Automatic annotation (TrEMBL), chain A:
<keyword id="KW-0479">Metal-binding</keyword>
<dbReference type="GO" id="GO:0051539">
    <property type="term" value="F:4 iron, 4 sulfur cluster binding"/>
</dbReference>
<dbReference type="InterPro" id="IPR001949">
    <property type="entry name" value="NADH-UbQ_OxRdtase_51kDa_CS"/>
</dbReference>
<dbReference type="GO" id="GO:0048038">
    <property type="term" value="F:quinone binding"/>
</dbReference>
<dbReference type="GO" id="GO:0008137">
    <property type="term" value="F:NADH dehydrogenase (ubiquinone) activity"/>
</dbReference>
<keyword id="KW-0520">NAD</keyword>
<dbReference type="GO" id="GO:0051287">
    <property type="term" value="F:NAD binding"/>
</dbReference>
<dbReference type="GO" id="GO:0010181">
    <property type="term" value="F:FMN binding"/>
</dbReference>
<keyword id="KW-0408">Iron</keyword>
From TrEMBL, chain C:
<comment type="similarity">
    <text>Belongs to the complex I 75 kDa subunit family.</text>
</comment>
<feature type="domain" description="2Fe-2S ferredoxin-type">
    <location>
        <begin position="1"/>
        <end position="88"/>
    </location>
</feature>
<dbReference type="GO" id="GO:0051537">
    <property type="term" value="F:2 iron, 2 sulfur cluster binding"/>
</dbReference>
<dbReference type="InterPro" id="IPR001041">
    <property type="entry name" value="2Fe-2S_ferredoxin-type"/>
</dbReference>
<dbReference type="InterPro" id="IPR050123">
    <property type="entry name" value="Prok_molybdopt-oxidoreductase"/>
</dbReference>
<keyword id="KW-0411">Iron-sulfur</keyword>
<keyword id="KW-0408">Iron</keyword>
<dbReference type="Pfam" id="PF13510">
    <property type="entry name" value="Fer2_4"/>
</dbReference>
<keyword id="KW-0001">2Fe-2S</keyword>
């Protein structure tokens, strides 16, 4: 049984409400931080903890905080990124829905560390009922004196509000999120300047994921050193994993980083193995943007070591034989899944969500989708596979924000690991007419048709 | 998109309750940053006006927030949750991204559309139902799922869809949490 | 601050961008820019045409930048070394961007008023390919009328957003903007409002392609048949300094004066641009010079190219003539030889 930091109290009845949360030790970190620690000491603890941003990029949170411009004297802001829209990820929603005060407590402590007096939680518009939950929780916190002027008589003021988006994946990118918070279109800004210098309303701003902020209270109470003891190497602490796809027990799990992928997938404590005991075909370990892994690279790395749930182990082998931990959206596919169809599905998503600001992403994502759609529907050409590869390599790295990379990686990885399946679609269009073409005839049964001898 | 103003008409009614709520939202932002409240305000206004925003209504929002109408049009057309033409009373928004697709949302959408006698993106003649496919709603572990109003309906199957349609017809489904 | 671009050193003020430094050097090292416009605040970074490779970050931190950077929005650092035309990676990236810009472009240059002074044409001439890999249907938009002076042709737009910035910064009431998102984003007023403001005509000059053109000049002439003159008049709204485009004694078009990077020197008002089409309105200063290789200079100042005679064998010409007859009159049976297609 792994240690629980975020979901420790999730099963206490009524933990959603302020009273129960407070009775169970809630808001203790605010008391400790505001009364006994300086803001820099809080930042230092977070740095020591080795906590890495849980939104996907894995950038050390403490380091990010230390970049904020405190010298200019302009007002500072902390913005919590709850625009969770990465396909496969639904952990933040779980946290906010069932234990909203944990996030609010984290926001207060973190805002104090940054010296921010006006902070926001930016939640995606689709989570409207969670928006209302947070709004009520914030009102409770105001009423109990944890927010507002002169909190706990320490002279520290903080206003916290929740802001909702309205259906745009791109607003999960921190500068697009800031634009959206300013009431504009969610177009990512050109960096530099970084938000730490010019963010919300041109003031220094830090944008952090929900899970990162919700971890701060524990770190403040138990010290960063204690947090760093959990996990392996530079992957410290626990991580929420959202598991979905063809598995027995989908849902949100808190794991200690360093757990093996094998145990996570197959033990009854976690995912409980494959749905209907069908064979495993592929895994996307960190949300749709990260490269997909074929069955032979899931439990073992290319060197034959055990694959672990850490930032390092999952990316072992680079993109050639590895992937990324990303946001922890763990999507499992069995042998009935068509990888081409799934890649088309992801490409449609990125095409739909591209903001349209910069050329490679605006034009390239649509092109990728159209080609994949053709291949999947039996109108592919042999040269389309090379074309896909070429287009994705031209998008990657040439865009303003990482959405371009996120759109190209899944396509690249699918071609890299499942090229035969693309060839099968191109050469046997009559066999892929129905969308469930692999349900009755999994690819393993027809693989011989696209052996290397056929040109 | 451009000429729609002349096709659909909407009764605009900014009630005192709605205005009070708008003012509450405005109080969350600094005095000189009224534009920041645009998204939350649009949500509230849309909810109070049959779930869609005509250009006249968008102009009204621009007036309240003291910004140019084009700034509202730009934003409304960018975000998918704002509807620019009338839709059914109950909009079934099926998530159709990978995880839901692997758990059979496409079949379920076909089933729902057949049952209601419409195609994806259409509204039934009685104006009750609209079925649309949307991108990931963040409920991948509880697939297949759909959103009606503010709420999610998860782990769906054909029986549950039948039940939901019956509940909608009987007026038992809450759309917004006010 | 010292910066080296393609091996050429230059000293610039802090805060200069790489693109500005390259423009100071001039020549072939200047990256193409489709969206950056030095006279519009906040422009740049979107088209990705001006990507360059930074091989040395600065004297203080010499590590190269891993990704190509947009030179128009990246400030120089002391000791920075940049490769523009010398880098194969940059050339490849520019080719890619050009391809992306062209896949959905209608390629209707023969009927486009911008042809001859179009940045996209120049870009494709330098970095484009003659064939396409795009076999899908092109994206198109509904036409929209935006008033009597300006013609919007959305299919040609590359979404540089210069016109939006121009309307924001030059006029007091912007009525057009970018609506929708992704590859369906478009420039629109939403309600077909006439863009009506004394400085609105400048959106035509800042548009790098033929998306916004002068309605009063529409289909009048190809730009290279016009002769441009610098002219001025006393205008109470703007500087009054313009270029007038003449055909014989007729002024067919008035634009602002553009420099070698196709940016206007000073913005002009709509009265000068659209209403003053009489020679008597203007004081003509003299012919306007253009860069040597501009299309506009063709057939005017260059020597006449030698006439090339294509030698073809006689029976090939005869065969071609027969083919032409058949192709152009498919429905009409050929009576003479009985070899008809019908």
């Amino acid at each position: 049984m792994g240690r629980k930091i975020l979901l420790d109290k999730i099963n206490i009845p009524g933990i959603k409400t302020y009273e129960v949360y407070r009775q169970n030790g809630g808001y203790a970190s605010v008391e400790k931080a505001l009364k006994q620690m300086t803001p820099d000491e809080v930042t230092e603890e977070v740095k020591t903890s080795g906590l890495r941003g849980r939104g996907g990029a894995g950038f050390p949170t403490g380091l990010k905080w230390s970049f904020i411009d405190k010298k200019s004297g302009r007002p500072r802001h902390l913005v919590c990124n709850a625009d969770e829209s990465e396909p496969g990820t639904f952990k933040d929603r779980y946290l906010m829905e069932y234990i909203p005060h944990l996030l609010i407590e984290g926001m207060i402590t973190s805002s104090y560390a940054l010296g921010a007096n006006l902070s926001y939680i930016y939640i995606r518009g689709e989570y409207m009922w969670v928006f209302k939950i947070l709004e009520r929780a914030i009102k409770e916190a105001y009423a109990a004196g944890w927010l507002g002027k002169n909190i706990l008589g320490t002279g520290y003021d903080l206003d916290l509000h929740v802001h909702c988006g309205a259906g745009a994946y791109i607003c999960g990118e921190e500068t697009a999120l800031i634009e959206s918070l300013e009431g504009k279109r969610g177009n990512p800004r050109i960096k530099p300047p970084f938000p730490a210098v010019n963010g919300l309303w041109q003031n220094p701003t830090v944008v952090n994921n929900v899970e990162s902020i919700a971890t701060v209270p524990w770190i403040v109470l138990n010290s960063g050193e204690e947090y760093a003891k959990i996990g392996i190497g530079r992957s410290t602490g626990t991580k929420l994993i959202s598991a979905s796809g063809h598995i027995k027990n989908p849902g949100v799990y808190e794991i200690e980083l360093g757990l093996s992928v094998d145990e996570f997938m197959n033990s009854d404590e976690y995912l409980g193995g494959m749905l209907n005991d069908r064979p495993l075909k592929a895994l996307v370990p960190g949300g749709s943007s990260v490269p997909i892994l074929p069955a032979n690279l899931i439990f073992k790395t290319a060197n034959g070591e055990d694959r672990l749930m850490t930032y390092e182990s999952l990316s072992d082998g680079g993109f050639a034989t590895g992937s990324m931990l990303g946001s922890g959206g763990f999507i499992v596919y069995n042998d009935t899944t068509c990888i081409v169809r799934n890649t088309w599905n992801f490409s449609r998503f990125y095409h739909h969500e591209s903001c349209g600001q910069c050329t490679p992403c605006r034009e390239g994502t649509g092109w990728l989708e159209k080609i994949l759609h053709r291949i999947e529907n039996g109108h592919g050409r042999e040269e389309d596979i090379e074309l896909l590869w070429s287009i994705q390599s031209k998008i990657e790295g040439n865009t303003i924000c990482p959405l371009g990379d996120a759109a190209s990686w899944p396509v690249a990885a699918a071609i890299r690991h499942f090229r035969e399946e693309f060839e099968y679609h191109v050469r046997f269009p009559e066999k892929v007419k129905n969308r469930d073409h692999f349900v009755h005839e999994p690819f393993e049964k027809v693989r011989h048709l696209v052996g290397k001898t056929i040109v | 998109m451009i000429m729609e103003k002349y096709i659909y008409k909407q009764d605009i009614n900014i009630t005192p309750e709605l205005m009070a709520r708008i003012n509450e939202l405005l109080s969350h932002y600094p005095e000189d940053k009224k534009k920041s409240a645009l998204l939350p305000v649009l949500h509230e206004v849309q909810d109070a006006h049959d779930n869609w925003l005509s250009y006249e209504l968008q102009d009204k929002v621009a007036e309240i927030l003291e910004i140019k109408p084009i700034e509202v049009y730009e934003v409304v057309s960018f975000y998918t949750m704002f509807n620019q033409k009338p839709i059914g009373k109950y909009m079934f928004e099926f998530c159709r991204t990978s995880c839901c697709a692997t758990r059979g949302v496409e079949d379920l959408m076909d089933y729902t559309c057949n049952k209601l006698g419409i195609k994806e993106g259409e509204t039934t003649v009685d104006g009750m139902f609209t079925v649309v496919g949307v991108e990931c709603l963040g409920a991948c572990g509880y697939a297949p799922m759909m959103q009606i109003g503010d709420f999610y309906h998860e782990n769906l199957n054909q029986e549950k869809v039948d039940q939901l349609i019956a509940d909608c017809r009987a007026g038992k489904i809450t759309l917004h949490d006010k | 601050m010292k910066v080296t671009i393609d091996g050429q050193e230059i000293h610039v003020e802090p805060g200069t961008t790489i693109l500005q430094a390259a423009r100071m050097i001039g020549g072939e090292s200047v990256p193409p820019a489709m969206c950056y416009y030095s006279k519009l605040q906040g422009s740049g970074g979107k088209c990705r045409c001006c990507l360059v490779e930074v091989t040395k970050g600065s004297d203080a931190n010499p590590t190269p930048m891993p990704k190509l950077v947009a030179s128009c929005v990246t400030g120089v650092m002391d000791g920075m070394e940049v490769n523009s035309k010398n880098s194969a990676r940059v050339e490849e990236a520019r080719k890619s961007v050009t391809e992306f810009l062209l896949i959905n472009h209608p390629l209707d240059c023969p009927i486009c008023d911008q042809a001859g002074e179009c940045d996209l044409q120049n870009l494709s001439f330098q970095h484009g390919k003659s064939e396409t890999r795009f076999i899908e249907e092109k994206r198109t938009f509904e036409p929209e009328d935006i008033g009597p002076n300006i013609q919007l042709h959305m299919n040609r737009c590359i979404l540089c957003q210069r016109c939006v910035l121009a309307a924001d910064q030059l006029t007091d009431g912007r009525v057009h903007g970018v609506i929708s998102r992704g590859d369906h984003a478009q420039i629109s007023t939403c309600l077909s409002k006439a863009i009506d403001n004394e400085f609105s005509g400048n959106v035509i000059d800042v548009c790098p392609v033929g998306a916004l053109t002068d309605k009063t000049f529409r289909f009048k002439s190809r730009v290279w048949f016009n002769k441009p003159y610098n002219a001025h008049r006393n205008c109470d709204k703007c500087c009054g300094k313009t270029t007038v485009w003449m055909f014989g004694d007729e002024i067919q078009r008035v634009t602002a004066r553009k420099d070698e990077f196709h940016e206007v020197e000073e913005f002009i008002c709509n009265t000068c641009r659209f209403e003053k089409k009489d020679v008597s309105d203007w004081v003509i200063e003299g012919p306007r010079r253009f860069e040597k290789f501009s299309v506009i200079n063709r057939n005017k100042y260059a020597l006449h190219p030698p006439k090339v005679e294509i030698r073809t064998e006689k029976h090939i010409l005869e065969g071609r003539e027969q083919d032409q007859k058949r192709i152009s009159m498919v429905e009409v049976p050929e009576k003479t030889n009985g070899n008809s297609n019908s």
